[in-house]
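hey m, so remember when u said the C-alpha cells were messed up on ur end? i reran from scratch. heres the input so u can diff it against urs
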Amino acid sequence: MARTPAIGTLAPDFTLPSVEMVAGEARRGERTLSAQRGRPLVVAFYPGDDTPVCTRQLCSYTTDLARFTDLDATVWAISAQDLASHEAFARKYSLGFPLLADIDRAVCSAYGVTTLGVATRRSVFVVDGAGVLRWKWVGLVGLTYPDAAMIAAQIAAAG
C-alpha cells in the first residue's frame, strides 16, 4: 500500500467522472481537484455504495452539509463503483454532493487508501483553497468515520 500524502503538501491532482443529484436529476460530468482551487474541499473515500457504514457516513454528511457550505467548502465522495451504481445510491438516499467513480483505483492508490489493491480504506482528506492537504483521517478497519463537526473544525482551523 502506498503512503498517504503528507500534511502541508499539494494534494495529488486527479480528474474523475462524477454524478450529482440536483433536484432529482442526475448530472454527470468530470471533477478535477485542481479546478476546485479557491475553496476548501473535503475528499471522502469510502469502500462501497449502499453498504451500511458507507450509507450512514454519506447520509450524515448530507444531513450536516450546511456545516461545510457555511465554510465555503465542497464535499466529494470517491469509491471504485461505476456511475450507474453511484447514481442509484445517490438517488436512493438523496445524497447532496457528487460521487466520483475511481474504477481503476488510481486515485485511491495516489492517496494511499487501498488495501491489497482490492479494497478502499474509509478515509477523509481536507484540501485547502490552494490545493494543500491540511488534514487527513484514514480508518484502519472501516467501521468508523469522522463526523461533520470534526471535519468542519479542521476546515475552519486550516482557515
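this time it looks ok to me. The domain at 15-21+38-158 is CATH 3.40.30.10 (Glutaredoxin). if urs says something different then somethings off w ur setup not the seq
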